[in-house]
Design brief:
With 439 residues, the protein is α/β, with parallel strands linked by helices. Helix content is 29%, strand content 30%. The structure holds shikimate-3-phosphate.
């Protein structure tokens, strides 16, 4: 999608209280599990971003009846399984959507063809297709398992699968396929990744056995699970809350509160890291919602210092490194981010685009194959760049936040893509006092 650009400029303090949009990971899973289940699933607080809407359309194509009942309120009538779609499934920009749906669809005797936008068509699907093939799925498609591809499911064998990379998407695809595999399935996870699929499968009535063996998680789904419709209250997305919160930290005089942020410790590595950098980030009003801890987070303008981010923290903040790099550009000293090679296979090559965007704004960055180092002076960087986002929503939002506190504003080229994960981002930031206008 190409639209007019968007630019942000330095302005006054940001102040106010906002609500984080619904969590993207949980929103996708609500749609998919609701469609796989028998009976009615009701969802409140669904993220109505383009990615999740693509997943909702896909679930309709596989036979679920889905209705929007109000803002963020959806009803899914699951058929207890998928039927064969009569058209190509277009998952848009959504890696989570397509990988989880392929896993879910593999359990049924059907053929389905998947595609997506140009970014998604360039992303690796082999990481999901390889384990699905071991379970008995066949597929036909382009070189190295890129979309578009056609998958033929049914008659799956169970297996024990050790994840070759820290990926909740791969884990989830195998677990969803495992719902219909003979003998059930086990996923061995050397590095813990977000556990929303496990928690939500339990919420839909499945038996999920998680054991820690010498620090390695073994997740087992015995054969013969039945899912029943339920109610899901989607908590606020920590990955989206990150943007107004970092803005609050770097714009002088600011105080920004984001309410209802999910605090699952497999998602909150950014907040821990910011606190280590000296951020005045206070979590209050901690409570439970739909099996997840949520809280309100207040960020006040802070003098930040560079830190070394432990590589083992990466899975708990993998989508947050671009916005962490913006905070690092305002910190004094080096912020070292290593062990993040997975960033190169997200919606864009996020190591390279974050480095390029910061360099265009006068920030010192050293790029490495699996990481990068940002050196700040403790003063606002120059800014003034126009950032190429390659259609990546998080690259766009991160650099717009940079422009709110740099000496000169920052423009991004494809702001339309922000709606994949954070529709209403520009209005929410303007409501806090940010200067955002068409470029
Ligand atoms: C997600 C997992 C992560 C993350 C993505 C959402 C999920 O991807 O980057 O935005 O909902 O499971 P990987 O599993 O590929 O790391």
């Amino acid at each position: 999608m190409t639209a007019a650009g968007l630019k942000s400029g330095p302005g006054g303090a940001l102040r106010g209280t906002v609500r984080a949009p619904g969590d993207k990971s949980i929103s996708h899973r609500s749609m998919i599990l609701g469609a796989l289940a028998t009976g009615t699933t009701t969802v409140e607080g669904l993220l109505e971003g383009d990615d999740v809407l693509a997943t909702a359309r896909a679930m309709q194509a596989f036979g679920a009846r889905i209705e929007r009942e109000g803002v963020g309120r959806w009803r899914i009538e699951g058929q207890g399984g998928f039927s064969e779609p009569t058209d190509v499934i277009d998952c848009g920009n959504a890696g989570t959507g397509v990988r989880l749906i392929m896993g879910a669809a593999a359990g049924f005797a059907l053929c389905a063809t998947f595609t997506g936008d140009s970014s998604l068509r360039g992303r690796p699907m082999g990481r999901v297709l390889d384990p699905l093939a071991r379970m008995g799925t066949t597929w036909l498609g382009r070189d190295k398992g890129r979309l578009p591809l056609t998958l033929k499911g049914g008659n799956l064998r169970g297996m024990s699968y050790r994840l070759p990379m820290a990926s909740a998407q791969v884990k989830s695809a195998v677990l969803l396929a495992g719902l219909h595999a003979e003998g059930g399935v086990e996923v061995i996870e050397p590095e813990a990744t977000r556990d929303h699929t496990e928690r939500m499968l339990r919420g839909f009535g499945a038996e999920v056995i998680v054991e820690d063996k010498d620090g390695v998680r073994h997740i087992r789904l015995p054969e013969g699970q039945k899912l029943s419709g339920t109610h899901v209250a989607v908590p606020g997305d920590p990955s989206s809350a990150a943007f107004p919160l970092v803005a609050g930290l770097i714009v002088p005089g600011s105080e920004v509160t984001v309410e209802g942020v999910m605090l699952n410790e497999l998602r909150t590595g950014l907040f821990t890291t910011l606190q280590e950098m000296g951020a005045d980030l206070v979590i209050s009003n901690v409570r439970m919602a739909s099996g997840e801890e949520v809280g309100d987070i207040t960020a006040r303008h802070s003098a930040l210092k560079g830190v070394v981010v432990p590589p083992e923290r990466a899975p708990s903040m993998i989508d947050e490194y671009p916005i962490l790099a913006i905070a690092a550009a305002f910190a004094e000293g080096e912020t070292v981010m290593r062990g993040v090679g997975e960033m190169r296979v997200k919606e864009s090559d996020r190591i390279s685009l974050t480095a390029n965007g910061l360099i265009a704004c006068g920030v010192q960055v050293v790029e490495e194959p699996e990481g990068f180092i940002v050196t700040g002076t403790g003063q606002p960087p120059r800014g003034g760049g126009t950032v190429t986002t390659h259609g990546d929503h998080r690259i766009a939002m991160s650099h717009l936040i940079l422009g709110m506190a740099a000496q000169q504003g920052v423009a991004v080229d494809e702001p339309g893509m922000i709606a994949t994960s954070f529709p209403g981002f520009a209005d929410l930031m303007r409501g806090l006092g940010a200067d955002l206008s068409a470029a």
